Amino acid sequence: MDKETAKKYLFDMIKIRQFEEACGRMYMQGKIKGFLHLYIGEEAIAVGSISELSKDDYIITHYRDHGHALARGMDPNKAMAELYGKVDGTSRGKGGSMHLFDSDLNFMGGHAIVGGHLPIAVGIALGIKKQKRKGLVMCYFGDGAVNEGEFHESMNLAALWDLPIIFYLENNQYGMGTHVKRSSANPEMLYKFADLYGMPSTKIDGMDVITVRDSAREAIEKIRKGGGPLLIEAMTYRFRGHSMADPSEYRENEEVQQWQKEKDPIELFKDYCYTNNILTEQETNQINGEVKTLIKECLEFAENSPLPDMSVAEDKIYNTNN
Amino acid sequence: MAEMNLRQALSKGLREALDNNDNVFLMGEDIGLYGGPYAVTKDLYKDYGPEKIIDTPIAESGFVGAAIGSSMTGMKPIVEIMTINFSLLAIDQIVNHAAKMHYMSDGQLSVPMIIRTVTGAGGRLAATHSQSFEGWYASVPGLKVVAPSNPNDALGLLRSSLNDNNPIIFVEHSMLYGVTGEVPEPYYETPIGLPKVIQEGTDLTIIAWSGMIPVAQDVELKLKEENISCELIDIRTLNPIDFELIFESVKKTNKVVILDEYWETGSFGAYISSVIQENCFDYLDAPISVVNSMNIPMPYSAELEDQVVPNTKRVLEKIKNKIGL
Question: What are the pLDDT tens digits along chain B (325 aa)?
């Protein structure tokens, strides 16, 4: 890996980490309301896979969406303002944490009904195919969604219609507080569902950004060459609770600490960069500092953004351009 | 003017849409090779091919969601859900996704799609196949709901729906496909949201839509024999709905009966009633009466079904007993 790419990867992962940490703090201070699901621990997936996409490609994801949004290049100021419920937010404060959108980036939303965005992802891929456009759909979902009927309906439709879509299963091992072993009859083999639909699939270490990048690259190339849908299952772990309201009584602290100690994707990547003489500690520290400034700015931006008035609430219920 | 039935009017509208807009495609269960469960899409597969007329698996949530997604990329899907009863399998897609996408993205994304589906009782199909859920969908901000009762409105509303960039629930009643009427040759559209007075009168306003229109017409004829003059309004669209025309009629007749094929509890007809009483209270000479299906899951037997849905006899009884005409 070259120096510039390494810097970019590290910058993006640290940007997500610090953004999420800031969100957690601001939630505790009452600046951010509602449900807040942090992506801390899972940064390698968003950064490693989204870095391989082109601007024609679409992203659609679940409610733990900040990481994907930032990795895609969403303006952190606008994202934070949205979380603050302010008028400069991506949806002027009408979507919130779970519903970030940026159509200019083909970022088609965070969606908050588990499994609900999978059929929509299939439809976006159908739209691409029907209009003979370039591009594919990267659809992120969690291990919880695999047990929804919509997962299976979507897999079948995508395979039946041979659509350009990557089903990206972020297996963080917990659907809210329920471990995958308590929710799935065959928890080690979730990626094998793809076999039933004649779809290639792979299971990878989602904590290693290079592994994530390589598997995404391979999958994307297959689709660009005219291949059909694929499934990637990336094993990962969220270091924080399901949401900020999580009582954390369903898993042992030791388990969390072990993952943090041994598999933190940022620390793993730093080690890789040091071992292979790609980056120095001074350089990673500098990145850390740059991100810190960026996050400080985005908090200030959100703080200073005006609150929306009721005209915003009453706007865009319907599309009035016919 | 050409005489045609409602099924033919819809077919004409669908063909027009396919001919005039490359982004239009149809999707649904058995709409293609089979010819459509209610034959609305008959011969379209033969004439337009499998790319435009897509036979889907029986996966309502999957294909409705796929239609939503494709519309977000600029396509104009017309989805058929075989009956409104099956739309419950896709209600998450319709209510949580189609209705919310434009709003939650603050206008960045739109869902310009039509969901055609079949409502109502009358087919001797028992409790799971005889329901009228259009009022549910009408209650959801972000959706529009149209429910034509005749060929002219069916074609006009289909054209308006095609030119509308919102998710539209296009409700067809299974008992009305054979209803015939005049359809003008020159292009026209029927505006979404505008009720229509289909019979002028002075003594009683009857409000109805979709499958209740023939019942309303029958009631109107029966009362005419007793020299009671009814004004008959077909609301045609449940959401949006322009109440001004309804208010004008109420201010003239001072008496209202509303026919709604849904159950009594939580009925859309009751909502119309509440809006009228709030706005026309001083003009009312009698309570507003709403005639619904009885609060009973639909029984199969024809003998029973005909009594559970609002019928002429029950409507006349209510007009006499509650309104006092």
Answer: 899 999 999 999 999 999 999 999 999 999 999 999 999 999 999 999 999 999 999 999 999 999 999 999 999 999 999 999 999 999 999 999 999 999 999 999 999 999 999 999 999 999 999 999 999 999 999 999 999 999 999 999 999 999 999 999 999 999 999 999 999 999 999 999 999 999 999 999 999 999 999 999 999 999 999 999 999 999 999 999 999 999 999 999 999 999 999 999 999 999 999 999 999 999 999 999 999 999 999 999 999 999 999 999 999 999 999 999 9
In a domain, A313, yes or no: no
User: Do the domains at B2-183 and B196-323 have one common CATH topology?
Assistant: yes
Count of domains observed in chain A: 1
DSSP secondary structure code for residue A278 in this structure? S
Interface test with A, best of B58, B105, B160 (most A CBs within 10 A): B105
- The answer to whether domain B2-183 has CATH 3.40.50.970 is yes
> How many CA atoms lie within 13 Å of B321's alpha carbon, on the beta-carbon side?
8
Q: Give, for A100, the enclosing helix (H) or strand (E).
A: none
CATH number at residue A7: 3.40.50.970
CATH number among 3.30.413.10, 3.40.50.12280, 3.40.50.920, 3.40.50.2000, domain B196-323: 3.40.50.920
Cα(A186)–Cα(A181) distance, integer angstroms? 8
Q: Kindly report the nearest CA distance between residue B3 and chain A, in angstroms.
A: 30
Is the Cβ pair A122, B75 closer than 8 Å? Answer: no
ipTM of the complex in this document: 0.96
Q: Could you tell me which chain B residue has the CA closest to the CA of A92?
A: B106
Strand, coil or helix: what is A109? strand
Search chain A and give the residue with CA nearest B140: A317
Subunit contact B69:A119, Cβ cutoff 8 A? yes
B129 is an active site residue: yes
Catalytic residue among B129, B172, B231, B305: B129
Which of B67, B96, B142 shows the shortest C-beta gap to A123?
B67
Question: Which residues are CB-neighbours of A306 under 8 A, at least 6 positions away?
Answer: A86, A87, A88
Give residue-wise pLDDT tens across range A239-270: 999 998 888 899 999 999 999 999 999 999 99
Distance CA B59, CA B29 (A): 9
Which residue in chain A has the smallest CA separation from B54? A161
Contact assessment for residue A68 and residue A107, using Cβ atoms and an 8 Å cutoff: yes
Q: Please, are residues B199 and B228 in contact by the beta-carbon 8 Å criterion?
A: no
Q: Which of chain B's residues have a Cβ under 8 Å away from the Cβ of A102?
A: 108
The token duo for B134 is 């259009």
Are the beta carbons of B72 and A120 separated by less than 8 Å? yes
Taking a C-beta distance cutoff of 8 angstroms, is the pair B179, B150 a contact?
Answer: yes
Chain B hits for A145, CB-CB cut-off 8 Å, are none
| Cross-chain Cβ contact A108/B93 below 8 Å | no
The domain locations on chain B are 2-183, 196-323
Q: How many CA atoms lie within 13 A of B49 on its CB side?
A: 2
Residue with tokens 């399901």: A242
B280 C-beta neighbours (distance < 10 Å), count: 19
Chain B residues touching residue A163 (CB < 8 angstroms): none
Domain boundaries, position A176: 3-301
Contacts of B57 in chain A (CB under 8 A): 153, 156-157, 160
Q: Is the residue at A142 inside a domain?
A: yes
